[in-house]
Fold:
Amino acid sequence: MGVTDDAIAETVLKTYDALPTKYKPVKATEDFFPWVPLSGVVAVRDDHSPPECLSLGTGMKCLPIDQVARANGAVLHDWHAEIVALRAFNHLLLNECLDLAASPTSLSPIVRRRAPHEMSELGGMQPFSIHEHLRLHMYASEAPCGDASMELLMEAQADPTPWPVEQLHPGTKKLPSPLRGRGSFAELGIVRRKPARADSPQTLSKSCSDKLALKQCTSILSSYTTLLINPANAYLESLILPESQYVARACDRSFGPEGRMKHVAGRRWPGGYAFRPFRVGTTDREFAYSRRSKPASSKELRTSNVAAVWNPRLRESLVVGRLQGRQRLDPKGASAICSKRMSTTVLQVLAALGTPDLLREISESSRVKAWKQSVPLADRRGVKADVRAKALEGWIRNEGDDFEVNLQ
Structure:
């Protein structure tokens, strides 16, 4: 018998429960109950092995558009739980690669070296691959924000009349097209930005529904990790949600081959990429800090501002996309899962490997924007462009955070 959806959820929940108090919301009081979404990536090695949590994250905020250019790669643009969990997973992969690169005899339970014939026959310049026998799953304590949660949002309204399109917060930049947050919730199947209050600063960070839909095509590897690991074995097999958060028609529309992704159904691209839709399963387990866990003794719900980051090599607590307790401009406040630190790890791996082709391609410029336009990422760029044109129309890129990459 294979691993159950409940077992996948329980693996993430137990891993979170074991974290120290500093990584969790403050204690509930009579006045309020703090809540936060949780997500995690789980690996299953075979039908007889227990599931293993490889990463988890909590959080529910993102960076306003007018602060992106000042992030300098050291501040997360998006720390919603699903995105934090995926970043923590990629951090783990990069450090597994670093160990393999540093010692030719070392082995990893997650990543393996690719043989030369794989790069010529299967494509891709990447020196590593995730083990073929690993099956990857994700748990989320809340329905992903955006399209997959719109029916839940509508059901929660006393007045079902769709809200008007949100007005821009005074002083923020004008968006080039009307990306919706929570507003106009009668419009289904569209790309949305992260939801926020109408008076909040504007963001261009896309919803978790949209990002997960795209990752069914690009894999759950980040652009940095894709420089080192071939994407073919890096796709989710399932997304597990609490029963209370699952609306079949919403998930089918958002992620399924008969919904908005139908125009790329069955599609394969060069470099090991393909449309590989995950199954959406359910669990009766509920997260201790979900909205539905509020006791009757607490008067109101209040969002927690602390985001937890965990993998077997890392534990962090973040506030506003940086390490908790650090000043905004303190360079030591950069999280291990921020773009700047993960891109540095990529350089360390390539330097240890002595991989001249890859090093030459990405070292012609020390700026990360040039990295992302380099030849090794051409296949990935092609997939993203194709999917955005055919399935996720209206996607506006969140640009402006360009920074220098170095080995320090």
